[in-house]
Amino acid sequence: MHQDEPLVEARIARLVRDRVDPNVHRRASPVTIEAWQVPDEPVPFAEAVTQQYEPFSVGSPWGGRPWGTTWFKVTGTVPADFGTTEGTTAELHVDLGFTKRQAGFQAEGLAWRPDGSTIKAIEPLNDSVPLQVGPGESFTLYIEAGANPDIGGDSFQGATPLGSKHTAGDVPIYRLRALEVVERDDTVWELQQDLWVLRGLMAELPTDGTRGADVLRVLERAADALDPDDVAGTAADARAVLADALAVPASGSAHRAIAVGHAHIDSAWLWPVRETKRKCARTFSNVLDLMDRDPDFTFACSSAQQYAWIRDEYPEVFARIKQRVAEGRWIPVGGMWVESDTNLPGGEALARQFVAGKRFFLEEFGIYTPEAWLPDSFGYTGALPQIVRAAGSKWFVTQKPSWNETNVIPHTSFLWEGIDGSRVLTHLPPADTYNSDVSPADLHRGERNNKERGVANTSMLLYGFGDGGGGPTREMVAAARRQHDLDGSPRVELGTPAQVFGELERQLPTPGVWSGEMYLEFHRGTYTSQIRTKQGNRRSEHLLREAELWASTAAVRLGQEYPYDALESAWHTVLLQQFHDILPGSSIAWVYENAEAEYARVARVLEELIGTATTALASGGPDSDTADRPGGTPAAATQVRFNASPVAADGVRALGAEPVDAARPVPPVRVGDRFVFDTGVVTATVDADGHVVSLVDRASGRDAVAPGEAAAEYTVFRDTPNQWEAWDIDRAYQRHGSVLQATSVTVEGDALVVVRPFGRSTVTTRYTATHGQPELGVETEADWHEQQKLLKLSFPLDLKADQASSEIQFGHIDRPTHQNTSWDFARFETSAHRWVHVAEPGFGVAVANDSTYGHDVTRRTRADGGTTTQVRESLVRGPKFPDPEADQGHHVFRTVLRVGASVLDAADSGYRLNLPVRAVPGDSVVEPLVTVSSPQVFVEAVKLAEDRSGDVVVRLYEALGGRATGVGVDFGFDVAGVTRVDLLERPLDDGAGAAVRWDDGAPVVLTMRPFELVTLRVRRA
């Protein structure tokens, strides 16, 4: 037989394009359109319907400007003969001027009934609105249309002026292309779905195989049966030909895909947060409409923040969601406030994502979410499994590791083990997408990529338009139905995440284990981009710690009212900004204008709360008597110094306050052409070029700086990644660096100031030191006006460190400094929180920071045979997409170079740098609410209980990475009982509570495993 497959495929493709698709709509009838252009930001329905509407016609521009909103009032009558023929349906067809891009990245609309209830969204690939009137009946509805610009295009490169409302211009970018009543031919539509599935299946099967050849020939016969001049009259005949092919069941060994309706809605990205609220309303209305029409359709949705927006701004939609949740068809998942980044948020913040999210789901729906849900985040911290378990969950879903550039995680379904040994059953949907359209291509990819096939034959398929929202469509559900049991295809079932994990638990009694972080070999620039937002996050996290600690202390000591509402609101704001396209720096300018304003507002609120509490505490109270304090209180003291860190600082005990003198600065002393800082513990020398050429530990005589090398050296690298500009740093940056040269080195008061110009920018360094401290302060002030450049600060150290310890949430992670494996090679830029520590036995050096996350740590052999381990901080970038002005302007970074053998020394500097002691007028001693006997156990949070009972909640963790035994935790107030609880402050029921030993008046005694996180709930007497 002649090989005619390409000709047959071309014939079928043209038939679908030119005959089937155009005939889904039999005919159309016009409607009357009126419009009102919203003058500024979107308005609620109740306000929009009261406006004066003007006549509007198809073909006219709308939106006013990019990001504008137009409300259309649509009135019409369904023609008397529309929808009367069996197999036809009358509906409204709307084309807002859509391009070929997917839903969620351009214009969108939401259809409303006159009573203020929503119908569904209008989007590029979901452009119909059901009409709830019959033939000959009239209707009125409203369409809220958002003129959102297509920021990304197809390249996700190149700056855009449309990323801020202030730069978007006033030229309309959309014209209304269609708004009409149409008569849909249901049979032609069903034929369209049949053909889509079978053509997709044929593309996945070899046409020289039996099944592939059969599908090709049945499609050919269907084409013969369809009269191109009478598609409506012969569509049923063509469907009858296809029915046999669609009825052949799948093989017994076929992969099983449990399809879960989903809509990954980025809480901000190429649109601002205000638009995300409308995206949620549109998507959720789509889902509810589908549920009304299909009793088997299920939908999983995460992000408590998005539900809260709907509750507060679309109460009618929220009421319908609650009904579907109660039925078990709408499944809240994940339990986080937003789908946050996990590399950058601090430990307590990541814990609060679950506290806030799971509380919302429990309070609003009575739902306990058993899984963590982060399909699209840029790497996953090794601390996450413990946090997930501590929140009461046991499963984890993500897809992002499939983006890795170099290595592939060797499992699809496995136990993920965190740094403390906690494990969660994890599933990576093997179709490698969280936006599937249920195509045969996605299903077959999922079957091929399932690394546990032959053992676990089940996987999750997340389907629905995502990122910009939209969710599942009727076409996707139709595809799932057709592939439920189809020869040559994996079996498809509409289901829930719990069904998937239930099957995996049954099929994998001993899953494989992945230990430690799931590092994403991609998007490494997100540790550095949009540094102002990262600084706002870091500062907010520490202000929240202070506000909770001092407000709790004032409540317990003085009976002050605890500011529950203000703290919860601040937390919710900070948690929202940790969304995985906000905090990583990958959103448009508008998002960062909002974020920086929100951080400033949060700082004002928290500083006021801190000021109220500390002022009251410093001025006296029942615990302010200092008569029994050894040495008493200096008579001349007029300020109380508050230390919110878990380590002593400037002579003030951890978590307490004392009227002590301020730390004494050490000024630089000029010695020849060099400058020396001598703290009594270390001696630092800065040369005439402004570089640190030695940092000598006085006790050992050892110099931390590698001989012949310069520390605190700034290098500007070319930063032009191949793609995803704000997201990525490519390894090639290392080939093109320029070391900044000093133009002046001067002493200014107690600081040594070095000025280094570069291009249109200036980098100013201020070196400082403090008496009695084993460290040198390096403050970098960057007046930055470079684009596509990366500024790094380098510290070459005289150490042979095989690994670098980097702080992460509730502990640290050790990463190799060598490149033995492809995994090591790919890890050329890494994230760390407040510090990085490198060491040999008995001697180590820490590089601590107040706002830097991106680092690289390498080692090299010197000419003298010694080894240099180099720690570099990534300070600032200048990507041009999606925000062309990213990182431009003034920045200040604080770094500490510290000699210390242990990671506890690094943590000491990290805490003190990020939680500086506060001076408050007064003369009272404030005893800590909590003291811990072990130096390796840190108190991370002191707060009052979420249920507003007045109980004190203390969160602490083992920080060294070793077992801690006999850890005494004492409380500076009368205690009626101590209970070990989970993150939601509920008593543990797994036996772990037995680890708490407490007798009236005695400290709690704990035994803690490496990096273990413990939460104690303390009832006051």
Automatic annotation (TrEMBL):
Annotated region (Disordered), positions in chain: 616-636
Pfam families per UniProt: Alpha-mann_mid, Ams1-like_1st, Glyco_hydro38C2, Glyco_hydro_38C, Glyco_hydro_38N
Record's keyword annotation contains Transferase: no
EC id: 3.2.1.24
Key words, A-Z: Glycosidase, Hydrolase, Metal-binding
Domain Glycoside hydrolase family 38 central: 521-599
CDD domains membership: GH38N_AMII_ER_cytosolic (cd10789)
Coiled-coil spans in chain: none
Gene3D superfamilies the UniProt entry points to: Glycoside hydrolase 38, N terminal domain, Glycoside hydrolase family 38, central domain, Golgi alpha-mannosidase II, domain 4
Example GO molecular function: alpha-mannosidase activity
Keyword Metal-binding: yes
Family: Belongs to the glycosyl hydrolase 38 family.
Record-given protein name: Alpha-mannosidase
